[in-house]
Write a structure and sequence with these properties.
The structure is a single chain. By secondary structure, this protein is of the alpha/beta class. It is built from five helices and seven strands. Strand 6 and strand 7 form a beta hairpin.
Length: about 140
């Protein structure tokens, strides 16, 4: 199965020049812990997480009204294409010790976000379906 089947298509984004106060407000409003940072044409260039804000802004006593996302984001966000297999994506997450991958289309533009939670939810659903099949066969057999 490819990541395009289970990734989130409604990706919360940030621009590198916006302030961390604006980014943090968007995270709170949307109920998310990360924003993919994109350039002016939509290419993913980084990611900023709630942990980044805590460790790189609050702990350093930076002004959230003047500090930009570019200053605190993690550059070089890990990405996969829509056609990437879920297994390959999970291997990449494990190799890099991350929980999220930006999903790109054939042109490299951001089209989704795959989280470890997306993968777990998918496989949990598969396990439930298998359990129902086993139960149905027990009743029939």
């Amino acid at each position: 199965m490819n990541v395009e089947k289970i990734c989130s298509r409604n990706v919360d984004r940030s621009e590198p020049g916006e302030t961390v106060r604006v980014a943090a407000g968007r995270m709170r409003q949307r109920g998310v812990g990360s924003l993919v940072v994109v350039d002016e044409i939509g290419l993913p260039i980084g990611i900023v997480t709630d942990r980044d804000l805590a460790m790189r802004v609050v702990a350093e006593a930076l002004d959230p009204g003047t500090t930009t996302v570019r200053e605190v984001m993690t550059e070089g966000v890990q990405t996969v294409t829509e056609e990437c297999s879920v297994e390959e994506a999970v291997e990449r997450m494990e190799r890099f010790g991350i929980r999220r991958l930006a999903v790109r289309d054939a042109n490299g533009l951001l089209v989704g976000l795959l989280s470890i939670d997306d993968v777990l939810n998918h496989f949990a659903g598969e396990v439930v379906t298998l359990g129902r099949l086993i139960d149905a066969q027990r009743v029939a057999g």
